Amino acid sequence: MWIEQRTWTAANGWSTQGEHKTPASLVLYFAAPGAQPPEDILSALRDSYGGAAIVGCTTGGEISGDEVLDGTIVVAALGFARARVRTALRALGDISQSRKVGAELAAELAEDDLKALFILSDGTRVNGDSLVAGCRDTVAGDVVVTGGLAGDGARFQSTAVGCNDAMAPGRVAAVGLYGEGLEIGHGSFGGWDEFGPPRTITRAEGNVLYELDGEPALDLYKRYLGEEANGLPGSALLFPLSIRLPQGADGSEVVRTIVGINDSDKTMTFAGDLPTGHVARLMRGNFDNLVDGAAKAAEAAATGRPCLAILVSCIGRKLLMGQRIVEEVEIVAETLGPQAGLIGFYSYGEISPHGFTGKCELHNQTMTITTISES
What we know:
Elements: E1 2-9, E2 13-17, E3 26-31, H1 38-49, E4 53-58, E5 62-64, E6 67-69, E7 73-79, E8 84-91, H2 98-109, E9 114-121, H3 128-138, E10 144-149, E11 161-163, E12 171-178, E13 182-189, E14 193-205, E15 208-212, E16 215-216, H4 217-225, E17 241-244, E18 254-256, E19 258-262, E20 267-270, E21 279-284, H5 287-301, E22 307-314, H6 315-321, H7 326-336, E23 340-347, E24 349-353, E25 360-363, E26 367-374
Parallel strand pairs: 3-4, 9-10, 22-23
Antiparallel strand pairs: 1-2, 1-7, 3-7, 4-11, 5-6, 5-23, 8-12, 9-12, 10-24, 13-26, 14-15, 14-21, 15-16, 15-20, 17-18, 17-21, 19-20, 22-26, 24-25
Helix pairs in contact: 2-3, 5-7
């Protein structure tokens, strides 16, 4: 397997690391909104990589090597010796179709030697939980499902996905990776600290939260945030919720990011579902713990051989850490070592098996890493 990486910046145009020796099998790209017209991105990659599968999305920031970038396009091309690649694309006409779309994509790509699915979805028109559930219900249990929701900086207005065509909103793309020689690693960890007492979700519908402990959710949330509540909904990225089953903390918590609020009915809309009866707690960031979480994700994903590492981290982490965000990428690069080529983006949701349960989930506020290598 060979890897070639490219980066486009407005100041310097395209630069390349590595050299492709045979036709490319797969090209992944992550592009800042408005960096270039989507048609121009596709044309440039077609000129370089011919008939390879080309899949990408918009971002809240780009990752290349041990750098965090903004306003750029980052690319990784892979050439496999024996492994195969297939792609599938679906439109999301309505958020209620999320589970159906996930199941259809997984069914289209299902084969006996399917090793992994990598999913890129529109980040604002999808229920990520339902999308992942549709994939999970359709593929075999040993298929690794990872990926992320496209970003639009901190604007949450419009995101786009491309699959062998120019990027456009309202779509989900899936890459199927096949072959016995493939080795797929994965890791996902957060590093956020819980604060305040546990609260029971007493009323919710899908990804819309109405009540915690019988009180309007938005009222309670604003009370805890104090002056930070003046910055809603943007400041909510810095204060996500953890949710878990009521039986107790067993390591199976997932984190949910708030993507919108409604002052008139005092509700909060999240990137994934909040089941009634689950226990929720507010969270806040600790820089050192967030960096440590990224290191743990890298340790879990490491294969010990040359690989491409795809990093999907949350826009909330980037906004909280500011210029220190590079520290989480540097620790991943250090942990994986020089044999790993790093590429990635900041997302509106991360898709990966849970670090404790192994069940594929939608995550928020995590660093997730997928490693791809071929023996």
